Records
---
Amino acid sequence: MFYLPNGRIHPLPQEDTRMNICVIGTGYVGLVGAAIFSDWGNTVKGVDIDERKIETINSGEMPIFEPGLSEIVLRNIEKGRLVFTTSLVEGMRDAEVVFICVGTPQSDTGSADLSAVWAVAREIGQNLTDYKVIVTKSTVPVGTNEKIKKLIKENLKGSAEFDVASNPEFLREGSSVEDMQNTDRTVIGSDSKKALDVLSKLYEHLNSPVVETDLRSAEMIKYASNAFLATKISFINEMAQLCERGRADVAAVSYGMGLDKRIGKYFLNAGIGYGGSCFPKDVAALYRTSTDQAYDFKLLRGVMEVNKLQKKYFLKKITKMFGENLSGLTLACLGMAFKGDTDDIRESVSIEVIRDLRGMGAKIRAYDPEATANAKKVLGDANIVYCHDKYEAIEGSDAVLILTEWKEFANLDPERVKPLVKQKVIFDGRNLLDKEKVQDYGFVYFAVGKRTNGLDKVDEPSESTVPSALLKNGQDS
Ligand SMILES: NC(=O)c1ccc[n+]([C@@H]2O[C@H](COP(=O)([O-])OP(=O)(O)OC[C@H]3O[C@@H](n4cnc5c(N)ncnc54)[C@H](O)[C@@H]3O)[C@@H](O)[C@H]2O)c1
């Protein structure tokens, strides 16, 4: 039996289903994947071109913060079934399955930058000596796996055979160790029965459906899923705008909606917008795919637009309170990671907000439980003091801003905050605090999608435009 961190139990795969696996790219997806596959009893080699990353892992340190990961990696290194190398040739030797887990960031045109995927495909082709199943876990646009197949073929030095499969990953940073083993579904796409069988065997002990499909549909399932989740977030953020104006509470609205099984409660929290290494780039890439196919995916345009506006709307609350010129003000910024339980700051809205505030002249006192080192690399030291504790960040500041939904920020004690902060103002960008309690302590409180004493103070005006689609016969009045 294998014990998950939350106590759920899955049977381990039977002895005869264990295989030799190579995982290329040991980032958030590849490192967790390599660790979990080896914990299932497989022999795994993790490969990365980043020498420092491989050195770090081999020295027993984790290059990323991910709850539960370190124990699993160290346990399997010790058992001799998990090794890490910078050599792809070494990594692929004896492997029956090769996973591609390299990054696919957003390019300048909005499409996915697939240069790392192409580089790996070429290298796989050049070094393929016997039959392997090549599996793409990286998120790649529809049609990419067919091109991977072509590239590998073009680079073959001998006559080795191979099959290509798509096996998109659905883990969430912060809970990836559990997500990979307790997934809602496993998606496998291939035109090869042999490849589908090999991958089904790898995952067959998991307690969830396996979706076997073609390459293109598997690729599309990943983008459709992320785009839909981003749509839920933008939807509730627009509802938040209406709730502020209509004196309703978006948290109550979201709770009431989420109890409906057809809707579900997840990804329905209003805030300052989605960020991270997946949603922004995946929504943009799917939109790019649509325009490449001469189709305008109108809904996705709206999702992206709303997401941008949500951050601006939050900043507007601050400038309405303090004016456009923030020089002379010190702001305590709680949270720099793109979400709680991770050290990842890629496309973090919190980082963007801090940059914007600093640009308007504010001095920043910042704190994040895990992301400070990463944030420091992109924000530098100008007009920003990195603190070791939330109360240290608040001490001597003019106002408190909650930017990332770390659980520890929900426990912020207004009684402790009161003597530390110069002006009693809180901007809660993640709706973590109890509105009544904070206001009872005499704070001016701003949240997202709730009428608070803060909004009443600045008398937020409504902005409204009537689109022609609403008018009878679509005509302007
Ligand atoms: N991070 C997530 O939460 C998440 C979830 C699901 C899917 N994905 C997708 O998985 C893929 C990987 O994401 P990530 O967050 O793990 O990225 P990452 O940037 O954390 O890791 C990518 C790794 O690939 C390595 N790499 C790049 N080129 C290489 C090469 N030629 N050979 C060997 N290694 C190479 C990099 O050094 C890096 O360590 C992306 O397509 C992403 O969209 C990510």
---
Amino acid sequence: MGCINTTQADPVAGRFYLGLAVAPEHQRKGYAWEAGILLLGYMFGERRYQKAQAYVHDFNEVSQAGMLAFGATLEGRLRRHDFFAGRYHDNLIFGLTAEEFFAAHGSTGPQVSG
Ligand SMILES: CC(C)(COP(=O)(O)OP(=O)(O)OC[C@H]1O[C@@H](n2cnc3c(N)ncnc32)[C@H](O)[C@@H]1OP(=O)(O)O)[C@@H](O)C(=O)NCCC(=O)NCCS
């Protein structure tokens, strides 16, 4: 069980935010990777969005590594952005352009012939 979603999709700027979660008992099976590649390929290749962004907390090393593996770049750090579990946490912003995605993963769109 898990989910992947886009939020704040702005068709004029061509930007959207990406969110991912996989239930603990289903993690480490490649589901987040597969879902992320599918969603990014759809948004860039079919819907003409040109940039994906994601917020990742400073302690979330798995998601930071995942965003970098998708081809994203760390673009910013919102310091002391959230408070929970007794302390403040920074929130990191990752950005990925369509060109960077296709360079890293190739086109995932349909092959059109003729
Ligand atoms: C982040 C999350 C979505 C990853 O889901 P997942 O299905 O387990 O990820 P995958 O199996 O596709 O793994 C993707 C990569 O991360 C690595 N990875 C996944 N979980 C890991 C862990 N606990 N420790 C170290 N590496 C891990 C995998 O090894 C894989 O890298 P690889 O292909 O080089 O081996 C999941 O851990 C989760 O839901 N966490 C809680 C919610 C969250 O943090 N969401 C993101 C908020 S920005």
